[in-house]
Amino acid sequence: EGKLVVNYSGSFGIMDATQQTEMLSAYDHARMLNDRYKDGTDWIPISNEEMEAMKGQDYNWLDQAWQPSLETRHTVNLSGGSEKVSYFVGGTYKYVNGNFPELGVGSYSTRFGLDAELIKGLKASITISTNSKDFKRPYLSGTGTSTMEGIFLALLQAPKWTPSHIDGLPVANNVSVNPFAMWESESFKQDVDKATNMQVRLVYEFQNIQGLRATAQYSRNESHGYSKTYQVPYELYEFYNEGDYNYILSNRIKTIVPVKNNDRIAESYGYSQRYQLNLSLNYNRSFGKHDISSFLTYEQFENNGYGFKATAEQMLIPGIQTQKGFNWEAAESDGNLNEGGEIGSVFRLNYAYDNKYLFEGTLRYETTTVFSPDEREGLFPAMSIGWVISEEGFAKNNLDFFDFMKLRFSSGISGFDSATPFQYNVNYTPSSGYLFGGSNASTGLTVQGKTNGVKSTGVSWEKSFQNNMGIDLKFLNNRFSVSADAFYYYNYDILDTRTVELPVTSGIQEMPAENVGELQVWGYDMSIGYHGNIGKDFKWDIAGVFAFSSNRIVKAPTQYKSNDFRYPIGQSTFAEGREEGYISNGIIRTQEQLDQINAEWQEKWGRNYTIEGKEVVVGSLYLQDIGRPGLSTQGEPERVFGEPDGLITIA
């Protein structure tokens, strides 16, 4: 409040490596390779004479490429206002270049805020912020998934008897990648991201109704993202060896090695925007021993976006960093659109009598575009009650060693929109594979996706009926605390995909998700804590948490029969994905042990111990025979356990 206040802060820093990995000298590297591959048939040994010459070689590619990273940051903030109006404006700029050439990140952000009291009881605020980031780095094929890590390793591991350049030409000998040539080719990847956020908020305190407050809030976000990958071919040079040496190089060019480096330009752009509107009423009031609070809110949001990408290969005009610089007539492009939204509201009522008897009830209504128009709505009620026993007269008289004791119970239904959006629509994709009375394929549309046009119009919310009972205790002057909860959840209408074998001619690879699953979940959790202090200024806390949970599948799609051990019904989800394998009695280590095993199997099965019908030898595993293949014609599962047949098969 009062005069304009201006703050500026700036910084400049240098980031450098305090120590790099120490690698072998050229001489020690050569000696190590000779020892490592002395028995190899493809290795050309490095002679003693050449190793002596290597003592004078010390080409350190990493030191040659490494540079200190410089960081600069500037921030300006302005603030001021009056008793009823205040404002804030600020901005930050930051730039960091990398420890390698052609690497840098620049960003800036701005912020604006305004708070005002429009009339008595009505306050308004608005905040607007923008963010921008430009990240450019060298990009090279052949260096793995992480370009920077791959470049670092290529520089670090280059033999010290091999220079990066000879007479200004990048060297190909003795290395798989020469990062210096990549930098000189100006290949790069660049990401530019920009975003704008706005939020407007109105709060009104009703003057004639004590405890009633209304709030309206609107927020909007827009973001733009542009990405560009520019990879162009370049040339490396292979040189003849010096004299009779096999590794030390001369300056005589042997051949030019072309490197394609993907030879492409790829560009993509994406835009997204989202808005959210929240309207709410809050009421808080106390009447003697009665405390009432309620909350009603309405929420609405929508989002949409679009994007495209284009790729062209085969550079035609060097230095032209656009699609036109490549074979643009053969370029490929693609695009996308997306949209979604939800509407919901929540009503909550809290009531407490004399801080002893507590009640809370909530009702949540939601609708979403994830589901088809007839199945979008969901209504989810919940309630909880509590009893603070320590506030009762009989507890204060007979249970005074408890500082706090509370029993609580809650029950309610929650909903989840876990489905893939728009499964109620048929998806199409362009196609040019249809022949109608001629030899040329016609363009058109074809059904897209594994479901091949099967729609799922009856899908709706997953639901969970959740129940919880708990107790909270405090004693020893509130120093010792215990909290325990037991819970039971019944999850139903779980979205899952039926396991159905369909004719190949249908073109359907899988069915869309349906509300077909049911799951029971139960367990408990407990926390025990102690709070202490030493003197007035030193406080300490210690706590332990104990928990257990389990579940049982009640209903789920499955391809297994009920007598198969993989049949999920009645089992826990923790058992799904469990490891399956063989039980081993160890390794057969001696011929005497093998002879004894074969004798036992001859007596029991009339054959030697085999694996996949092959005789075993010393060193093989001794696997237990615990079952046999099932007979599907007789309704048996794939494996029948408990009925060994003397055959060890790998299936």
Structural summary, described in words:
This protein is mostly beta strands and 651 residues long. It has helices spanning 26-36, 48-54, 61-65, 147-157, 179-185, 393-398, 591-605; strands at 2-15, 69-81, 85-97, 104-119, 122-138, 165-166, 169-170, 188-205, 212-231, 234-241, 249-259, 264-287, 290-313, 332-353, 357-368, 377-388, 402-416, 428-434, 442-447, 462-475, 480-497, 513-534, 538-555, 584-587, 610-611, 614-615, 621-623, 627-629, 639-641. The strands form seven sheets. The protein has a 17-stranded antiparallel sheet. Helix 1 packs antiparallel against helix 2. The chain starts with a strand and ends in a 10-residue tail after the last strand. The model has no long low-confidence stretch (mean pLDDT 89).
